[in-house]
Amino acid sequence: MAWAAPSVWLPTGRLADAVQTGERQTVPAIGAEFWDYFVQHPAEGAIFTRAMHGFTSGVAPEVARLVDTSNVKLTVDVGGASGTLVHSLMAENPNLLGIVFDLPSVMPSAAAAATALGLADRSKAVSGDFFAYVPEADLYLLKFILHDWNDERCVRILQNCRRAMRRGGRVIVVEMLLGEIGEPGPGPIFDLLMMVILSGRERSLNEYRALLERAGLRLEKNSPTSTGLSVMEAVAA
């Protein structure tokens, strides 16, 4: 995940505090929870959304090739920001309808992006809380979402997808996977970042498989990409 830092960021001392205590340091450092900060500071929220667009643009073409949408009518980009991922799938499949589901503050950027791409007639921006519900659909996209949250909250998000999923539906999880201890790669650094800023963590493939199983889903396929991210595909268990 590419991070657009708030203007008052986490000093080195906060990193040490997080390592020593195991407690995230966002509120002590910037006076608000991470996502609340961007609502309170919309200019920086817009920077973060643009950063997410840039980072997602690198992996979106591969996801669009890996995920078969030929029999999909409607897909929801859960926490999709400006909708970069779902818009890529829609560009590949001219019959696909898409919903960007995110916080109210992000809706204008999602709608504007769809209009700029000529997808406004097939796209909707819907605001809501993915811990409470997600819209009904055939396909759910969870890109850099689960690593933001602890296991219990991840299961809740996935359960909401399972509950709303149409018959034959699927859940696509796009994340960086942790390898074996000592294996080279950026995963451990991002894992530390999640600990300092949010309540989440990076996970191994088996850990994501376990989360999916707890939510009534079954990991059917995992496809590594050239970006270092993996595309995990799950169906109803």
List the keywords:
237 residues, alpha/beta, Rossmann fold, 7-stranded mixed sheet, 43% helix, disordered N terminus
Tell me about this structure:
This protein has 237 residues and is an alpha/beta fold. Helix content is 43%, strand content 22%. It has one domain (59-236): Rossmann fold (3-Layer(aba) Sandwich), CATH 3.40.50.150. It has a 7-stranded mixed β-sheet with strand order 3-2-1-4-5-7-6, sandwiched between helices. Helix 5 links the parallel strand 1 (74-78) and strand 2 (97-102). Helix 3 crosses helix 4 (42-66) and helix 4 (42-66) runs parallel beside helix 5. It is globular, with a radius of gyration of 17 Å. The model is unreliable at 1-11 (pLDDT under 50).
Summarize the topology.
Layout: H1 12-21, H2 26-30, H3 34-40, H4 42-66, E1 74-78, H5 84-92, E2 97-102, H6 107-116, E3 123-127, E4 137-143, H7 151-164, E5 165-176, H8 187-197, H9 205-214, E6 217-224, E7 229-236
Helix pairs in contact: 3-4, 4-5
What is the level-2 CATH architecture name? Answer: 3-Layer(aba) Sandwich
Indicate the radius of gyration in whole angstroms.
17 Å
Number of helices: 9
Name of the CATH homologous superfamily:
Vaccinia Virus protein VP39
Helix content: 40-55%
Q: What structural class do you assign from the helix and strand content? A: alpha/beta
Along the chain, the helix and strand elements come as HHHHEHEHEEHEHHEE
Order of adjacent strands in the largest pleated sheet: 3-2-1-4-5-7-6
Q: Give the tally of structural domains.
A: 1
Here the CATH topology equals Rossmann fold
- Give the end-to-end Cα distance, rounded to a whole number of Å: 29 Å
Main sheet, how many strands, which sense, barrel?
7 strands, mixed
**Overall CATH class:** Alpha Beta
Quaternary organisation of the protein chains: single chain
Low-confidence stretches: 1-11
| % residues in beta strands | 15-25%
Quick check: average pLDDT?
85
Number of strand segments: 7
Inertia-based shape? globular
